[in-house]
Specification:
334 residues; alpha/beta; Rossmann fold; 5-stranded parallel β-sheet; 4-stranded parallel β-sheet; elongated
């Protein structure tokens, strides 16, 4: 099944709005990013709309779309944004592409930025992470190699008022609960999290009539009688539900009969839960430091705003004006 752009015309408008409100100006800069499908088709088009000298985009066949379909979506979005076909799309990941770029994003088809890749990059080039600093994954980017090569790395403040992207985490949790058959109002939900995701989700659930409890660790007493447990501990590496976890799949079945487990971020024994009759959403195993569903599950705006903000971070770092800009609070040091 191909991941489609949900509303092409609206997505084009969101791109124009984001470029305007962030005063994104990539003139004179070459950007290397990915060409992807669905809401993630936006990134190279944002760069082109912001006047980048060149936009290089890597793509490939994936479970979401073929490379040909990605190219079609990119061209359609360019056209709706009133752009000529400026995005240069490549179906192979050549080191020469990295050597050309001033800004290299850390997105799917561009990753991993390992030592071999980083050593091909220009000294003084920038990697803007499309996430906050605490969400950094070492397997995606070799920070030490960046330091040795003189490549600057900054993360993006998702709470910056012009975008307020991190707040969508709470809305995503609500949507996932609805999809799992939980009515929200007057439902009892346990959120297990020791990080920012949990705090934001807890606040959004409370504002919508949920009887919510946020904890760092689960036990049988905590889950007893709950309608749902949301796993939302992005930074936690061990299994939260499973034989070696806080509680077992059998515990969940016994102490919260009919309840559901929402895998927002965090590891669980999904197969064991299913074998014990527990509904899991989404119903797949997650590695540590991964979200079950991304903010794109809500629509295009969170992706557009976050990726435009990340490109703004790249712009500021390339031009060396991060300390003197009204947008300096967008940047987070690594």
């Amino acid at each position: 099944m191909t991941a489609e752009i949900p509303n092409l015309a609206r997505t084009a408008q969101l791109i124009k709005q984001a470029v305007h409100k962030l005063e994104l100006d990539l003139s004179g800069l070459t950007v290397l990013t990915e060409a992807a499908s669905g809401p993630y088709a936006v990134t190279p088009v944002i760069a082109a709309m912001a006047g980048a000298k060149r936009v290089l985009a890597i793509t490939a066949d994936s479970s979401y779309a073929t490379a040909d379909e990605v190219i079609r979506q990119t061209r359609s979005l360019e056209s709706l944004c009133g752009l000529p076909q400026r995005v240069e799309i490549f179906q192979e990941r050549h080191l020469a592409l990295f050597a050309e770029a001033d800004i290299v994003t850390n997105l799917g088809f561009v990753r991993p930025l390992d030592a071999k890749v980083v050593l091909s990059m220009r000294r003084g080039s920038v990697v803007p992470l499309m996430c906050e600093a605490w969400e950094y994954r070492p397997q995606d980017l070799d920070l030490r190699a960046c330091q040795q090569q003189g490549v600057h790395v900054f993360a993006t403040n998702e709470d910056f008022p012009a975008i307020d992207v991190f707040a969508y985490s709470g809305w995503l949790a609500l949507k996932m609960l609805f999809e799992a058959g939980i009515e929200i109002h007057r439902s009892k939900v346990v959120v297990v999290s020791g990080d920012k995701f949990g705090r934001v989700i807890e606040q959004r659930l409370q504002a919508n009539g949920v009887d919510v409890m946020r904890v760092d660790r689960l036990d049988r007493e905590i889950i007893a009688g709950a309608d749902a447990v949301i796993l939302a501990d992005y930074a936690r590496l061990d299994e939260i539900i499973g034989e070696g976890g806080d509680v077992t799949a059998a515990d969940v079945s016994r102490f919260m009969p009919g309840g559901v487990v929402i895998c927002f971020a965090g590891r669980a024994d999904v197969r064991g839960l299913g074998a014990n009759g527990v509904r899991v959403h989404p119903n797949r195993e997650l590695p540590a430091r991964r979200m079950g569903l991304t903010l794109a599950h809500l629509g295009a705006r969170p992706v557009v705003d976050l990726h435009a903000a990340g490109l703004k971070v790249g712009e500021l770092a390339c031009r060396g004006v991060e300390a003197d800009s009204a947008f300096s609070a967008l940047m987070q040091k690594m």
